[in-house]
Amino acid sequence: MPRPTKSARTVLNDTTSSLHNFTGIALPFADVARCRQLAPGATINDVALAVISGALRKFLVENDEIPTEDLICGVPKSLHGDAVEEGINKVTGLSVILHNTIADPVERLAAIRTSSGHEKRRAEKFSAAEIASMVIKLPHSC
Fold it and tell me: Which residues, in sequence order, are CB contacts of 80 under 8 Å at separation 6+?
């Protein structure tokens, strides 16, 4: 599966401003873990992405703007492994397809599991030098 490079154009692709909203929710961990079992091999993060994708799909449908192409989500991934260097954050990004064009939530979760798995394996194939050239190094404190 090739790495996704272009996301569908929607009202969400606009410049960030004070007119944009942010909403958070808390879900019982037991419920999330139960959802994870609906798609064998899915992770807690896959369930979170499926919930986000479902909410975005609902928003776009309600605004008559459901794209015919899938949205792509940037997902941070730590590159620290077991060795953490004091004062340095090592992070890369995965481009995970949200499969918002799939109406069925269980099918969407399974598709997200597959695309996130491909992205994780893609990121793991890089050599240490390749990863080092992509690593974002941020100061430990600002």
Answer: 90
Tell whether the torsion through CA atoms of 3, 113, 97 and 20 is positive or negative: negative
- CA dist 120 to 69, 89, 116, 123, Å? 22, 19, 6, 5
- Range name among 72-86, 88-102, 105-119 with the lowest pLDDT average: 72-86
Which element (helix H / strand E) includes 47? helix 44-62
Task: State both tokens at 79.
Answer: 């590159």
Strands 72-78 and 136-139: unpaired
**pLDDT, mean of residues 18-22:** 76
Does this model's pTM top 0.70? Answer: yes
Q: How far is 50 from 113, CA to CA, in rounded Å? A: 9
Query: 87, 139 in Cβ contact below 8 A?
Result: yes
Q: Say if residue 86's pLDDT is above 90.
A: no
